[in-house]
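[Meeting: bench + compute handoff]

Bench side (C.D.) handed over the final construct sequence. Compute side (W.E.) agreed to return the predicted structure before the next meeting so the bench team could plan truncations. Sequence as handed over:
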Amino acid sequence: MTDEYQGSGIAAEPARIFLDYLFDVWPFHKLYLELPEFNLPQFASAAGRGLHVEARMRNHHYHQGRRWDQIILAAYRAGEEPPPSDEFNR
């Protein structure tokens, strides 16, 4: 995304369409996305509305002079979402 569109949520719609496609075509229960913690703010708009923190591996990465967690997010099939969690905004 260019700076002009970052934080606008414009990338959320195609991502949601792609996830819907995957759930419609295959019998997945949930899909996982792994990312280093320093990339988590890019996904903040999806917190609790499609992506849920499934796991956190503490101090997994070393980047720019500090340790970062590895975050595992899960996207659940519609109607199977877990209860909301504040873990995303830790």
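W.E. noted at the follow-up: The CA atoms of residues 7 and 64 lie 23 Å apart. C.D. will use this when planning the next construct.
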